[in-house]
Amino acid sequence: MALIVKKFGGSSVATPEKIMAVAERVIREKGPEDRIVVVVSAMGDTTDDLIDLASKIDECAAGREMDMLLATGEQVSIALLAMALQKLGHPAVSLTGGQAGIMTSPHHRKAKIIDIKPERVLAELAQGKIVVVAGFQGITASGDITTLGRGGSDTTAVALAGALKADVCEIFTDVDGVYSADPRVVAHARRMREITYREMLEMARLGAVVMQPRAVEMGSHCQVPIHVRSTFTNKPGTIIREGYTVEEREFIIRGVTHDTNVVKIAVLGVPDRPGVAYKVFSALAKANIDVDMIVQSIRNADKNINDIVFTIAKPDLPQARAIIAEVGKELGVLGIVVEENVAKVSVVGAGMLGSPGIASTMFGALADAGINIEVISTSEISISCLVRADRVKDAVNAIHARFFPEEQETN
Amino acid sequence: MALIVKKFGGSSVATPEKIMAVAERVIREKGPEDRIVVVVSAMGDTTDDLIDLASKIDECAAGREMDMLLATGEQVSIALLAMALQKLGHPAVSLTGGQAGIMTSPHHRKAKIIDIKPERVLAELAQGKIVVVAGFQGITASGDITTLGRGGSDTTAVALAGALKADVCEIFTDVDGVYSADPRVVAHARRMREITYREMLEMARLGAVVMQPRAVEMGSHCQVPIHVRSTFTNKPGTIIREGYTVEEREFIIRGVTHDTNVVKIAVLGVPDRPGVAYKVFSALAKANIDVDMIVQSIRNADKNINDIVFTIAKPDLPQARAIIAEVGKELGVLGIVVEENVAKVSVVGAGMLGSPGIASTMFGALADAGINIEVISTSEISISCLVRADRVKDAVNAIHARFFPEEQETN
């Protein structure tokens, strides 16, 4: 007699036929005593179509009216899914975010869930109904409709699962779980049976976005196990939870990720005096540019000048280049070098803290493959190396082969 | 410093360009101190498209889920219109039916407005905003979304105008007012400056549907003047109100209407005994078939048998035919004759009660045009004649010419 929240994304409900397939699956998987809540996104490209429609009126429409508009997308899909469940003979009811008690902050288009009032959902479940809830949306204390921003439906599902004290939140998606590396890059990548919230967040930060980090954080906050599984198959996927249920973990490293969406900027010949690094990075922060890896090295101790090297996301390059040029001029630096042919390869694993030698294994794998490391950075549960972009796939494969010998099974 | 509710239908907001045009008009017509509420329908064919979408899941989807679906149509148009008003520099806010306090009965797809809580609308108006409200929809006491059925947006507008004690409710439509006859039939039909609720209702009942009768009834109930005017021009249309503001009414007859959506059924040789008419008409009533004109005449006094002739709407014919065949057999009638080549022509005017000779003028006009009258029926403010359908246009013109001599002006 489980309480399960299931979330289906836009591509799973893109057509009436697909909605019917979702309804069939939900009913098929439901135990006689199970209580089921289904969270859905807008059908297919509906949200983008609505944004296009609004842009014909105003390219920069206000958030409140935009949310009013966008919320219709999920409202259509919940109505249709409830109809489909009823058509198949199962009592069902659709609820908007507001009706489901998803209370949010008033920050339109990027509202945060601040409370969930689950009474209505619980009452409908108690009547034996499958409850279909609109993802991505909520309501403010004053009754205005809000949307949660990117990945919002995942967040709705996990938060609702937390408020309902659900046994599990199942996220149905187009991949069948979390892999030890991108299966398109590493042929022998393994599907993980389990992974911790923290590892999942770190993998997402380092390029492996299976789920939006916000939803994972929400899962960690509410301590709801999140089961990432495929819309297209019935086999189990990966469960994201606080710790491991299996007694022995065979793999300290949970995944090898890579990220090609990076650019390296080197500021050469920066005067070595207090406040210089602050000047460079506060200018970038003011422009909302996230700086990732940072290395400062001594260029010439006699002349008291250093080199500062850092990485940013590719789309930020034009803005960052202008900012750094200005700051560089002010500081009288020797030069600025931008390198776009770079990528980041990382290993992630909560167990690496207690396991010395992870870094050297990683560096060894890269050295044996003849791949040069340009920058290194580490966190508590990850190690990242910047390499040349044209060698990143080799790098991932070399590292993966070292940490995941082919004959072994995961977990 | 007027408070005005304006309603624009689906064809007025069918595209982003048309929505922008509505926004421009609303701002242009607004006096500096005016408080404006705009009620809009769903864009163009949106409602039909949503019904089609639902039918791909379930031909007979439940009302609650259907309302959840259909309500998105108006939600899209209010968001876009509010964006358009803001884009043009005027503060605006969109409100769903529920947010605007439109409280309804829980009868999905045909809910009745039972209360309006205008606090939010008044608060937004007090802040100088143009308030855009979704027509056609409301919310139940338990927070479920309902729709009001046919003509629902007009009803929303008029009811809201009543609750806000608005000075006038302007209904923008594709005709520029209420005419003394259908201008497509009568070249010299005149636009009325004023007409009473009661006359308008009677004209609608008799075939001239400019506005849904429910909205007119609501106007009468709330005593809100309704101004029916064109979306495409700026000239004034027709004001529907309780009485006339002009001192002298030149025309006792306000309109000549016609209705070709009728069928005549004659039940011949019905036994003349108590309860027979009840038997015939209660069987039709049970099947929800509206009977309009009824005439009973003596066929043969010696044999104690009568003929009963009545009219119904065309779409009800197949069902009515089956019912009458069965009842007729039971009663042992002589025969049943269905005549489809009929149409109803009527004159409507609240003043006819105190003006004898209206009926004879009408009959004279028909006689002079060589048109035979098959059935006559009267109400307090109307007289209707059933004529052959192929003569109905001649009939309308003949009667109109008699009551509205060409040289005179209306009102």
TrEMBL record, chains A, B:
EC number(s) from the headed UniProt entry: 2.7.2.4
Top-level EC class: transferase
One GO BP: homoserine biosynthetic process
Catalyzed reactions: L-aspartate + ATP = 4-phospho-L-aspartate + ADP
Residues reported to bind ATP: K7, F8, G9, G10, T173, D174, Y179, R184
Pfam families hit by this protein: AA_kinase (PF00696), ACT (PF01842), ACT_9 (PF22468)
Protein name: Aspartokinase
Amino-acid biosynthesis found in the keyword field: yes
